[in-house]
Design brief:
Residues about 300-305 have low confidence and may be disordered. It is built from 11 helices and 12 strands. The chain is an alpha/beta fold and about 300 residues long. It has helices at about 5-15, 20-25, 30-45, 60-85, 100, 105-115, 130-135, 200-215, 225-235, 245-250, 280-295; strands spanning about 50, 55, 90-95, 120-125, 145-150, 155-170, 195, 220-225, 240-245, 255, 265-270, 300. It is about 45% helix and about 25% strand. Strands 3, 4, 5, 6, 9, 10, 11 and 12 form an 8-stranded mixed β-sheet that branches. The protein has a two-stranded antiparallel ribbon with strand order 1-2.
Length: about 300
C-alpha cells in the first residue's frame, strides 16, 4: 500500500468522479484508475461501485476512507516535522567544550547561534579534552571543542583546527608577582607551588610536560580541581596556575605571559567521522569556525584558513 494510492483513493471518494479526481491530483485518469485497481487487488476488495456517472464507496471503501485520511494526515505531519528540523525551526545540538572555553569564548558563539535559530535546543557539556573525545565517540555529543593533537588512542573523528590560544601564568592579585620581569619563563616555575587541574584536563598535561621539558618536576601546591576551583585556589594564594589567556583576562587574577615563543594550545572542532552531524550541528560548526578566531583577538594567534 502506497501513499500515492491512498491519495488517489481519497480524491475519488471525495469527488465521486475518476476524471475530476485525476485532475485534482494532476495525473492522467488512466494512471489514477490503474493505481486504485492495484490497491484493490492488494486489499482483496473493491473500494468503489462503478456506474456510469455515479461512483459510490463500497463497504470496504467506507471502512478505508477514515483510515486513509488519517494516514495521509500523519504523513503530512511527518513531512512538516522533518522540514522544520531541516530548516532549523526545531532541532537539538549537543556541544562539548573545556571549562575554560565555556566561560570565555563559547557563550558569545552560543548567543549568536540562539539569535539566528531561537527554536533549536542547545545542550552544553563541560569536560577535559580526553573526556570529550570519549563521549563524542560514544555518540553522546554532536560536536566538541577539543585540544589537538589528540592524546591517547583516538577514535575515528574529524577534527579541524580553529585557533592557537596563548597560555599564561595567573597568580593572586594581592600577593607578590611570580617574577619581577614582564615575562615569565617555564624554568621560573621551579620550586614554586602550582595549582594543577585534575587528571583528564589537557592543561594539567601541558603544564607538567612543559616543566619536565625544562628539566624539573613541578612542585604541586594543590591538585585535582575543576577550572573554577583552580582559579579560586590561585586567588587564595595557594599557588600559581597555567591557564588560557582569554580566561585569565576575565578572571581578575594577575596575569604574566610566558617569554617568547610562549606556551600555546591548539583548539579544534571535532565530530565523528562515520556520522554526518545533524543540520543544526552543522550550522553551529560553521558558526564556531567563523566566530572563534575573531573572538580570540590579540591575546592569541588565529590559525590561517585551512589549517
Amino acid at each position: 500500500m502506497q501513499l500515492q494510492q491512498l491519495r488517489y483513493f481519497t480524491a475519488v471518494a471525495e469527488t465521486r468522479h475518476f476524471t475530476r479526481a485525476a485532475r485534482r491530483e494532476h495525473v492522467a485518469q488512466p494512471s489514477l484508475s490503474q493505481q486504485i485497481r492495484a490497491l484493490e487487488r492488494e486489499l482483496g476488495a473493491e473500494l468503489f461501485h462503478r456506474a456510469r456517472g455515479h461512483i459510490t464507496l463500497t463497504d470496504a471503501g467506507e471502512a478505508l476512507l477514515p483510515l486513509a485520511r488519517r494516514i495521509l494526515a500523519d504523513a503530512e505531519t511527518a513531512r512538516r516535522e522533518v522540514q522544520e528540523v531541516a530548516l532549523l525551526r526545531r532541532g537539538r545540538v549537543r556541544l562539548g567544550a573545556p571549562p575554560s572555553l565555556c566561560t570565555s569564548l563559547v557563550p558569545d558563539v552560543l548567543r549568536d547561534f540562539r539569535d539566528r535559530y531561537p527554536a533549536v535546543e542547545l545542550h552544553l557539556r563541560e569536560g577535559g579534552s580526553p573526556d570529550l573525545v570519549r563521549v563524542l565517540a560514544d555518540g553522546e555529543l554532536d560536536l566538541a571543542l577539543v585540544i589537538t593533537p589528540l592524546t591517547g588512542p583516538a577514535p575515528a573523528l574529524t577534527a579541524v583546527d580553529l585557533l592557537r590560544e596563548e597560555l599564561v601564568v595567573v597568580s593572586a592579585p594581592d600577593g607578590p608577582p611570580p617574577v619581577l620581569r614582564e615575562h615569565i619563563r617555564v624554568v621560573d616555575l621551579r620550586d614554586r607551588p602550582l595549582v594543577l587541574h585534575r587528571h583528564g584536563y589537557e592543561l594539567r598535561e601541558v603544564t607538567v610536560s612543559a616543566c619536565r621539558a625544562a628539566g624539573f618536576e613541578p612542585t604541586v601546591g594543590v591538585e585535582g580541581g575543576e577550572m573554577d576551583a583552580v582559579l579560586s585556589q590561585v586567588r587564595a594564594g595557594l599557588g600559581v596556575a597555567v591557564v588560557p589567556g582569554m580566561l585569565a583576562v576575565r578572571s581578575g587574577l594577575r596575569t604574566t605571559p610566558f617569554a617568547p615563543p610562549g606556551l600555546h594550545r591548539t583548539i579544534a572542532v571535532a565530530h565523528r567521522a562515520d556520522v554526518s552531524p545533524p543540520r543544526a550541528a552543522r550550522e553551529l560548526d560553521r558558526l564556531l569556525r567563523e566566530r572563534l578566531p575573531a573572538l580570540i583577538g590579540e591575546e592569541s594567534f588565529a590559525l590561517p584558513a585551512g589549517c
